User: Fold Sulfurtransferase FdhD from Thermus thermamylovorans.
Amino acid sequence: MYEYRRGEFLPGSFELPQEGQLEIHLNGAPYLSLACSPGGEVALGLGHLWLSGVFGALEEVRYRLDLEARRLHVDLPYPPPPLRPHRYAGCAAGIGHYGSRPLQPLPPGEALDPELPLRMVAQLQEAASGYRRTRGIHGAALFDLQGRLLHVAEDIGRHNAVDRLAGWLLLEGRMGEPCLIAITGRVSEEMAAKAVALKAPLLASRTGAMDRAVALARHYRLTLACYVRQTGYRLYAAPERLVGAAPLVLP
Assistant:
């Protein structure tokens, strides 16, 4: 390995992101395969299935991880739903199919501190050790409504990182609790839908948002803050949740 710097090549050694695969079997039959980072397979698999609408509560399922085969076995008390074709914008799980949970508009709730997106993204960047080591991993983080960090997940897939957050909530018995989400990657329509499904009133991203993501966020009243930097951000949807707490009057 070499590094090109100031007009010359220098020998170097760089840690590379690891790419693995997780097979998910439902009721004894192959269901889908995820390209993912190794580790935390149970949270990833369960979170992905929950966000896909495969099951509603963790108590409904039994699961077992075969780590050697990199296979998660999940038993449902009913037939699994059929996989449906899904449009990907890139950097998704790479399975070609995806379901979704039914979505409901988020309640208005109390006004949130407009500084929250700044603090959330800063904490995510500080905690994302995998990205600092490899520069090739996406990160996602959960926070409470005061901006206290609850959990960080990293994966080669930006969608997988959010699936891991959902899995953590399931395994910790905290699914449905109020939470906020910060991510490092761009916000696609699917990513915004995941935040709504997790009932997170605020999604903050270091990068940008796609047009369909903004439309979905506006429809479901998801406050969407993007291009978050140390000094500010762009607010695309549901501004009342943050602006209501700031000395700003919208026309």
